[in-house]
Amino acid sequence: MAFGEFDLIDNYFTHRWPQRDDVVLGVGDDGAVLALPQGAELVVATDTMVSGVHFDEQTPARAIAHKVAAVNLSDLAAMGAEPAWLSLALTLPEADQDWLNGFSHGLKEICDYYGCQLIGGDTTKGPLTVTVTAHGFVPAGTALRRDGAKPGDWLFVSGCIGDAGLALAVQQQRTTISDAHYRRVLERLYFPSPRVALGQNLREIASSAIDISDGLVADLKHILKASNVGARVDVDELPLSLAMTESVAADAAIDYALSSGDDYELCFTVPESRRGVFDTVLAHHPAKPICIGRITNEANTLTLLRNDEPWFSQREREGYDHFS
Ligand SMILES: Nc1ncnc2c1ncn2[C@@H]1O[C@H](COP(=O)(O)OP(=O)(O)O)[C@@H](O)[C@H]1O
Ligand SMILES: Cc1ncc(C[n+]2csc(CCOP(=O)(O)OP(=O)(O)O)c2C)c(N)n1
Ligand SMILES: [Mg+2]
């Protein structure tokens, strides 16, 4: 029996999502109709994943779904927003029902976890490409931004970085590590955890925030440029997993942490005046952000230090850039 575009939407993307009261009209009409809470501002983020660029052919459909939702929820987290709705643009080479089962299950799992509803999208035939737009709320005026860092602010990352890059290096046969460590880092490449709760807790505490998708150096530089400040980072303080430290030499581990990307931890700044509140909030929080340095007044200047001496990365590339 022929299985067409509208069967596909009905079977996989219409009924199985959490139903939110603020969705007046969801999947099925020309547009979704949504009710914003009073006093809230809407935060919207879009990210695309392309086969061969963001994931390879071995990547399970469930992981692709998880990751495309997670990277968008990570952008909402970096804005301090509470996630509410997702839309999905799906371009598929064929309507493979096994793939669609895996994909829609992966999407449902993450939507259930974060209480998000799929509210619409688009389905087309072509090279495998998945795009999600995430919508969330913040109380008006409280969104975290890239442009608020000030000299003297403390610089934090929310958790271990570099693991996803190490997994990719193993997958691409650039290095080898033990099976047990590979399983752990592959989980971080395939199923990143967006720091959604932490992001909301940082509203009215952090002076700036960004999520780390392209690599710490590349993404921190966006904060420095937007805020017209510099930063000093002590590379010995970078949080590294056991899988990382037991698998590669110390300098290589630092390079993964600085520039490999795909981590989806938050990088943020906290003014001295908010440090006490921050420590109190963190005492009750499962995430344990690590202080890696401080913001300076040297505009657009990132200084990497090891034992108080300048430290230069062995890698030429600073972070992921699609066109260089
Ligand atoms: N094609 C585009 N049209 C309009 N805005 C874009 C486009 N591509 C990226 N942007 C915007 O440029 C900014 C930086 O994008 P990006 O580096 O992808 O951010 P992120 O790492 O948070 O996904 C964002 O505000 C994004 O919305
Ligand atoms: C097959 C494969 N090649 C390379 C990578 C590494 N990679 C691809 S895109 C990317 C950076 C994040 O993607 P981007 O589209 O720049 O996300 P954004 O910054 O917009 O959130 C990284 C580290 C990967 N995950 N899989
Ligand atoms: Mg983007």
Structure description:
By secondary structure, this protein is of the alpha+beta class. The chain has ten helices and 13 strands. The strands form three sheets. The protein has a seven-stranded mixed beta sheet, with helices on both faces. The chain has a four-stranded mixed beta sheet with strand order 3-6-4-5. The longest helix has 18 residues, at 61-78. 43% of the residues are buried. The structure holds adenosine-5'-diphosphate, thiamine diphosphate (TPP) and magnesium ion. Catalyzes the ATP-dependent phosphorylation of thiamine-monophosphate (TMP) to form thiamine-pyrophosphate (TPP), the active form of vitamin B1.
Quick rundown:
It catalyses: thiamine phosphate + ATP = thiamine diphosphate + ADP. This protein has ten helices and 13 strands.
Topology at a glance:
Blueprint: H1 5-13, E1 23-25, E2 33-34, E3 40-50, H2 61-78, E4 82-92, H3 97-114, E5 117-125, E6 129-139, E7 154-157, H4 163-171, H5 179-190, H6 196-201, E8 208-211, H7 216-227, E9 230-234, H8 242-245, H9 250-259, E10 266-270, H10 275-283, E11 290-296, E12 302-306, E13 309-310
Parallel strand pairs: 4-5, 9-12
Antiparallel strand pairs: 1-2, 3-6, 4-6, 7-10, 7-11, 8-10, 9-11, 12-13
Helix pairs in contact: 2-3, 4-5
Thiamine diphosphate is lined by residues 47, 53-56, 71, 168, 213-214, 261-262, 320.
Domain PurM-like C-terminal: 150-298
Binding site for Mg(2+) 3: 30, 75, 211
Pfam family, one: AIRS_C
